[in-house]
């Protein structure tokens, strides 16, 4: 009976592991959700892979998971992702999360400054009259000859 239970739950563990792998590989980061929140989800999936199988845990190195996270950043983050790739340092997951958090907060601050709802702006131009003290030439004068 024990063997039957182990066989049944062992198979479900494999199915769970494959499902988690699929979620990890197919996860798409989106613009309208917090990057840090989404990175935590990817990190959780990587940890779940490690815990899926007791016989052969699927341990992904932090360097690999950090690279996956950078590659999954949305298109508006492409320049920032390129900047991260050019750095000659290895990221820990926590270090990458901190870096993304700082960037996300800076972007939010920039966006708030630009998007004040209902705000309008106008330019006021004032004509300065620099010749106030000079005599104005007479206007509409006609010469009369007799």
Molecular structure report:
By secondary structure, the chain is an all-alpha fold. It has one domain (2-113). It is built from five helices and no strands. α1 runs antiparallel to α2 (35-52). The longest helix is centred in the first third of the chain and has 25 residues, at 2-26.
Low-pLDDT residue intervals, each spanning 5 or more residues: none
Structural class: mainly alpha
Characterize the main sheet.
none
Question: What is the tally of helical segments?
Answer: 5
User: What is the mean predicted local confidence, pLDDT?
Assistant: 80
Could you give the distance between the termini? 138 Å
Strand proportion, as a percent range, falls in: under 5%
Question: What tags apply to this protein structure?
Answer:
single chain; elongated; 146 residues; mainly alpha
């Amino acid at each position: 009976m024990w063997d039957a239970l182990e066989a049944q739950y062992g198979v479900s563990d494999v199915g769970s592991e494959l499902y988690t792998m699929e979620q990890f590989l197919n996860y798409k980061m989106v613009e309208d959700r917090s990057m840090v929140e989404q990175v935590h989800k990817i990190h959780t999936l990587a940890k779940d892979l490690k815990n899926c199988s007791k016989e052969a845990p699927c341990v992904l190195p932090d360097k690999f998971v950090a690279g996956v996270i950078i590659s999954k950043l949305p298109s508006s983050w492409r320049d920032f992702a390129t900047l991260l790739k050019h750095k000659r340092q290895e990221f820990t997951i926590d270090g990458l999360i901190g870096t993304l958090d700082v960037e996300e907060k800076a972007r939010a601050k920039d966006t708030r400054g630009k998007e004040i709802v209902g705000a309008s702006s106008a330019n006021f131009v004032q004509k300065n009259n620099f010749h106030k003290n000079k005599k104005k030439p007479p206007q509409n004068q006609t010469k009369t000859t007799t």
